[in-house]
Amino acid sequence: MAKILIVEDNALNIKLFCDLLAAHGHKPEAVTDSRNALDAAREFGPDLVITDIQLPHVSGLDLIRLIRKDEQLASIPIMAVTAYSAHGDEERIRAAGAQAYVSKPISVVKFAQTVDELLAAGSDTDPTGESPASWANEGDGGAGPSEPGGEEV
Fold it and tell me: What is the extent of the structural domain holding 35?
């Protein structure tokens, strides 16, 4: 069971994310005011942070940067969930420090898969020094040529 902090100001999205995460055996904790997110993260000790980008007070991008600068929180994987889908938005979100980006409206399957990938990657060790969590959302999630169900093209 992973502890997952959700920073989201929309009540319907909070309910959806919390219900989905709880159904997958995780312990979600929601913060509706981004000004309280850092303190909540320090107190809750999440294994993953999921944040909206378009938040009042402290934007999701600023929050991601603040988490990355915080010694206690810097290594926690971050997934951005946002309605932003303009060219360059994903690059800006990743440059701020998020390992994954899921656009709204979310695909429940994609959301759950990305959470699982980030949690699994957070427990892996990569000998190259690159964070395995940065690999989340890469590829199509299908089987590769050497995996069962994969085929050479």
Answer: 3-135
pTM of the model: 0.80
- Domains in the chain, number: 1
Average pLDDT over residues 77-100: 89
Name, in order, each residue with C-beta under 8 angstroms of 114's C-beta and a sequence gap of 6 or more.
79, 100, 102, 136, 137
Q: Whose structure tokens read 């378009």?
A: 54
Specify the CATH number for the domain of residue 16.
3.40.50.2300
CA atoms of 2 and 46, how far apart (whole Å): 8
